[in-house]
Amino acid sequence: MAVMDKRLITLPNPHLRQTSKKVGVIDDKIRELVRHMEDITLDWEEGREHEVGVALAAIQMDMPLRIVVIRNNFDDKADKTFHALINPVITKYEGGLLEDFEGCLSVKDLYGKVPRYDKVRVKALDLSGKEVRFSAEGFLARVFQHEIDHTNGKVFIDHIKDAREAFYALDDAGELMQLDYEKDIADNKTLWEY
Ligand SMILES: [Zn+2]
What we know:
The chain is of the alpha+beta class. The protein has a domain at about 5-95 and about 115-155: Peptide Deformylase, CATH 3.90.45. The chain is built from four helices and seven strands. Strands 1, 2, 3, 4, 5, 6 and 7 form a seven-stranded antiparallel sheet that branches. It is globular. Zinc ion binds next to helix 2.
């Protein structure tokens, strides 16, 4: 299937729990995939008043390659530029674990309070194949951990599977409302069947 025909995949698609492969050569096909990932992220955001498409991993488009795109500005939707990371790895975790909200383009209508390290160091290649290193904290550190998890077949809900108080949904006014764990989460096959 051509790259441009690829679409976002969501749970319960089992491919989201698959481990992605390292990118060998960064060629035109990889660059085309990166552009398409950015477009898909921006398309998702269209018409969603209360949400921002902050990042995407290639596996979310059913391409099991270690590629992540991250928005350059999380606070300004008018800035539609991204950073592409090829073969990203976390080289160091620092600070303590902090719980905060996250969502995922591949997990429909669900938010979770997920523990993540406050600071991380990340190593990757840029699109020209040059090694780049980042030191991130707070929300950006969270985004790195979430996206690099995707390349390892992990979805954010997998961290909080048994956390009864951790699951939320957005209401029409854009407020996060806690969900009923027994009713909405525990036996929800669309989340856990894979
Ligand atoms: Zn995600």
